[in-house]
Amino acid sequence: AEAKGESEPTAGAVAMKPGTYTATASGFSLLQPLEVKVTVSETAIEKIELGENAETYPFVTAAMEKIVPRMLDAQSVRVDAITGATVSTKGVTAGVNAALAAVAAMG
Predict the structure, then answer these.
(1) Higher pLDDT, residue 9 or 95
(2) Is the Cβ–Cβ distance between 27 and 60 less than 8 Å?
């Protein structure tokens, strides 16, 4: 997985640098990596969005509709995969992991 990010300047010590971080990971499609955008505040994962991808629509949609709320509620990527969309779920999870690694590297 590959990540890049932009951070906003913040005052004082913070756990994370607020901003939106973009990462790519392998999903089901061999044509194009799965792009994931993760927006964080100083203390939380605020939003997870799907960027460019060539995933099969019903599978990646199911993964995003079910796994993203779980990740946001848990504030973690350690959530169960979605049955029937396992590879897309793993791709989304890997992308979020890579984006959060970029957040940690900026910290």
Answers:
(1) 95
(2) yes
Contact 71, 79 (CB under 8 A): yes
Neighbours of 58 (CB within 10 A): 11
Within 8 A by CB and 6+ apart from 76, the residues are none
The rounded distance, in Å, linking the Cα atoms of 53 and 28 is: 10
Whole-number mean pLDDT of the chain? 85
The answer to whether the beta carbons of residues 95 and 1 sit under 8 Å apart is yes
Residue 45 makes CB contacts below 8 A (sequence gap 6+) with 38, 39, 71, 72, 75, 100
Residue 69 CB partners (closer than 8 Å, separation 6+): none
Decide if pLDDT at 19 tops 70.
yes
Contact between residue 71 and residue 48 where contact means Cβ atoms under 8 Å apart: yes
